[in-house]
Specification:
Blueprint (H helix, E strand, L loop, with lengths): L2 E9 L5 E13 L2 E11 L1 H22 L3 H12 L6 E8 L2 E8 L7 H9 L12 H7 L3 E3 L4 H7 L3 H10 L3 E9 L2 E10 L8 H41 L1
Antiparallel strand pairs: 1-2, 2-3, 4-5, 4-8, 6-7, 7-8
């Protein structure tokens, strides 16, 4: 019987998975099978775009449904890791001081050393290498490294220890995106893939751009909400003291 646009997954020789639509029919003559003709259409990019859009919508819903920043970041990290990346981190910048807000890697043991390094070695903006995370925070330009080689590792790593850690993790691709509000850099979001993930492409980069813009807007709203809450509490205290 005929098959029309049957969606299946094909495993390539390199282990990657492609999403395809298959259509096929059979040529018969006097009741005898002659041959089939089969058409395969690659829809991998279309399917990926649909999945990224669903992921972006889920993150957006989470950002508007939860006022507690820590809870919201935890849930968003669970959405992004490992579905989109192996490593996800948010750094905030204020008065040239960098604070690690969130870091997530799905609890994989191989990231333990990298996590400890990040927590014990705060970023410093006095000195930085081109295309490093400190460079992204200071200059305000995004970095997209599709294929990590020795030269890229040298740029990413702040010192020899961090370079060794990144090399041991077999980092294959990186996206680091600055967060800005009203022309001011307020932080940066970084994503990494290792050998267990496909490398970040232009589609992934555009997704991160949109995602980070929404994160920045949400973080700014949270900051304003907390400031307003603190001012209100201060006003109430001062009023009570007067009485």
């Amino acid at each position: 019987e005929e098959i029309h646009s049957c969606e299946v997954q094909l495993r390539c020789k390199n282990g990657s998975i492609r999403h395809v639509l298959i259509s096929s029919n059979v040529a018969w003559k006097d009741g005898l099978f002659i041959h089939t003709q089969c058409f395969t259409r690659d829809i991998t990019q279309r399917r990926k775009n649909e999945n990224l859009l669903l992921l972006l919508n889920s993150v957006s819903q989470q950002l508007v449904s939860e006022l507690d920043l820590d809870v919201s970041m935890d849930k968003i990290a669970q959405m992004l890791v490992p579905a989109f990346a192996d490593w996800f981190a948010i750094h905030l910048l204020k008065d040239d001081e960098v604070r690690l807000l969130k870091i997530d890697h799905g609890g994989l043991p191989k990231f333990k050393e990298a996590t400890e390094y990040s927590r014990n070695n705060p970023l410093r903006l006095e000195k930085f290498k081109p295309k490093s995370l400190a460079w992204v925070l200071k200059i305000g330009k995004a970095v997209h490294l599709k294929n990590i080689g020795p030269l890229e590792l040298d740029s990413l790593a702040a010192d020899a220890e961090q370079r060794r850690i990144l090399q041991d993790l077999q980092v294959t691709s990186v996206i680091m995106m600055p967060m800005a509000m009203k022309g001011t850099i307020i932080g940066a979001v970084s994503f990494m893939t290792t050998s267990s993930h496909t490398n970040f492409d232009e589609q992934d980069f555009r997704f991160v751009q949109d995602l980070v813009a929404r994160l920045a807007f949400s973080l700014e709203n949270t900051r304003l909400y907390n400031e307003n809450k603190a001012l209100k509490a201060k006003y109430i205290r001062e009023k009570e003291n007067k009485w």
